[in-house]
Amino acid sequence: MARFILEIMKVDPEIRAGINFIYNEEFREWLRAYCDKNNLLLGHVDRSKEPEDIKKEEGGSMVWKVEQIIQSVDGRIPDIAYETGAVGKEPVSVLVGKSAVDVVMRVIKLGEEYAKNR
What we know:
The protein has a 4-stranded mixed beta sheet with strand order 1-4-3-2. With 118 residues, the protein is an alpha+beta fold. The relative contact order is 0.22. The mean pLDDT is 93. The protein has helices at residues 2-9, 25-37, 52-56, 60-72, 100-116; strands spanning 17-21, 42-46, 80-84, 92-97. Helix content is 47%, strand content 18%.
């Protein structure tokens, strides 16, 4: 997460925190609707498309991943992003924000909404 936030900060220095949480296809569909309803920007990256030379470069995966996520939402920093898994890569969702408190409050709201609507 630290490397992810450091890469995001190169684009938006106000983003200082993030949290990883569940990803699967069912949750992705719910998350899309949640983001639409709450006017949140949802980014994504398909880790199976990561070039081999990037995988081999120390730290290269994170730079590539952040670039892909930002490109998926027309050059903006998404509120939430998800990445599909690949060999050796765990599928995950991530929520970012300006502070740890901001991130925690938002992920609690997301979790409560998810639990209520399952």
